[in-house]
Design a protein that fits this description.
Elements lengths: L19 E5 L2 E7 L5 E9 L8 H10 L10 H9 L4 E7 L2 E9 L3 H13 L5 H18 L3 H13 L11 H9 L3 H11 L6 E6 L3 H12 L22 E4 L6 E10 L8 H12 L5 H9 L5 E7 L7 E10 L3 H18 L3 H18 L3 H13 L6 H10 L3 H11 L6 E5 L5
Parallel strand pairs: 2-6, 7-11
Antiparallel strand pairs: 1-2, 3-5, 3-6, 4-5, 8-10, 8-11, 9-10
Helix pairs in contact: 1-7, 3-8, 4-6, 9-12, 9-15, 10-11, 12-14
Length: about 425
């Protein structure tokens, strides 16, 4: 089975019209039959409602990591055999408010693989020995992150921009390690009982899919999965500190990761989002962007530089971020050069040529992302979780193409404020 099962460009214009949608018990099911033979890819998610201020995101990560380590019916080896004997894939992950799943299987094997997926979601064993292994692996990852300048810079910036109750907040690594050390299997079991259920459950299947057969299989496996009663518990707004600087010391490092950012008072569904997205791409979205051209290629001050709209959803605010990696001797010079280019960008705006070029790049990348069954399923799911109708699949490129230079410059002037940047440096000694 080829995991990169591709679709022909001729089908892109009418994809949304071919999506079938129905309710299967508590599940919103979207299916799209494509010319790829025998292979079906799927993506899905549900809302777990972690309490971020209470540190639930750590418990949620551990819970998800244990789903495939045994159920009350089968041990981890029996579960793995079902997948390996069929060449199938099944993975779970966590993304803030939601727990997600993704998989791929041959059409004939789909019922058995979906049965495993439902069993792991609904009846995980949470074996004590497996719990300790998962905890040790997570702890090792946290310990490695202490030496990762990019991870430490991103985390420190999040703490300057958000409260603990915001999904984009990252706890200090040492604090996370101490909390992890105190966790027991009972807490994971309790979290699963309270936070796993069919809340806003969405599943998307793309490929050689039989919609009726998938609906019947899901009805048997998840049709009676109840919703949980945990309420939403998160802050939707940023809570930034006054503009300032944080230095995270990581001895022995020769490079410094710098992050500069401020909150964006815009959600993904807002009219300003797409103009900001394209404008930011012009500034720092790829190798031909302004920051890369000027600070890296012409001035030779950085190994890498970019700009991003980060952590923005339809449910909570995110931020605008500029990141640059610098050598120790070029830290202050590199920061000043970066800020100079950002300020010039905000003051002067973008050009017609830049707008045309980046619109072509963005729409082209979007279409390439729809060229596999997995990519198409992921896009359909993302739009569904945002509350967008399936027609957005076809409208997105047209909406990008309709953007104009005045619209971008207007959004830039109202939302991008480099003088409000929080600045974080990770990898150098405290002054």
């Amino acid at each position: 089975m080829n995991p990169a099962s591709t679709l022909h460009d001729a089908h892109l214009e009418t994809l949304a019209a071919r999506v079938e949608e129905r309710a299967v018990g508590p599940c919103r099911l979207l299916t799209l039959h494509t010319p790829v033979r025998d292979v079906v890819s799927w993506r899905g998610c549900f809302k777990a409602h972690p309490d971020f201020a209470a540190g639930d995101e750590l418990v949620q990560v551990l819970t998800v990591s244990l789903l495939d380590k045994g159920t009350r019916r089968r041990d981890r080896f029996a579960l793995a055999d079902v997948l390996e004997n069929r060449g199938a894939q099944l993975h779970f992950s966590t993304d803030g408010l939601r727990v997600a799943c993704q998989g791929q299987a041959l059409r004939k094997d789909l019922p058995e693989v979906l049965e495993v997926m439902a069993e792991e979601l609904r009846q995980p064993l949470f074996d004590a020995a497996e719990f300790e292994k998962a905890k040790a692996q997570y702890l090792a990852g946290l310990q490695r992150s202490l030496e990762n300048t990019a991870a430490q810079a991103n985390g420190a910036l999040s703490r300057r921009l958000y409260s603990r109750a915001h999904p984009n907040y990252t706890a200090p690594t040492q604090e996370a390690m101490e909390r992890l050390d105190g966790l027991a299997p009972e807490q994971v079991r309790a979290y699963h009982t309270r936070h796993f259920g069919a809340n806003d459950l969405i599943l998307v299947f793309v490929g050689d899919v039989d919609s009726e057969a998938v609906a019947a299989t899901l009805g048997a496996a998840l049709g009676d999965w109840p919703t949980h009663q945990a309420p939403p518990a998160f802050s939707a707004s940023a809570a930034p500190q006054p503009p300032g600087r944080t230095v995270v010391s990581i001895p022995g490092k020769h490079n410094v990761d710098v992050r500069m950012g401020h909150p964006l008072r815009a959600l993904r569904q807002d009219a300003d989002y797409l103009p900001l997205h394209v404008a930011n791409y012009i500034l720092g979205g790829n190798f031909s962007a302004r920051l890369m051209t000027r600070v890296r290629n012409e001035m030779g001050l950085t190994y890498g530089i970019n700009a991003a709209l980060d952590g923005i959803t339809t449910e909570y605010e995110g931020h605008w971020q500029v990141g640059v990696t610098l050598s120790l001797e070029n830290v202050e010079k590199g920061i000043e050069a970066t800020l100079t280019e950002v300020r010039r960008f905000v003051e002067e705006g973008v050009t017609d040529d830049e707008v045309h070029a980046k619109k072509t790049t963005i729409t082209g990348a979007f279409k390439v992302g729809l060229a596999t069954t997995g990519g198409l399923a992921a896009t359909l799911l993302l739009n569904a979780t945002r509350g967008f109708d399936v027609g957005y699949l076809d409208r997105f490129p047209a909406e990008v193409e309709a953007l104009t230079r005045p619209a971008l410059n207007d959004a830039i002037s109202r939302h991008f404020h480099p003088d409000a940047f929080q600045v974080v440096l990770a990898g150098m000694q405290q002054p």
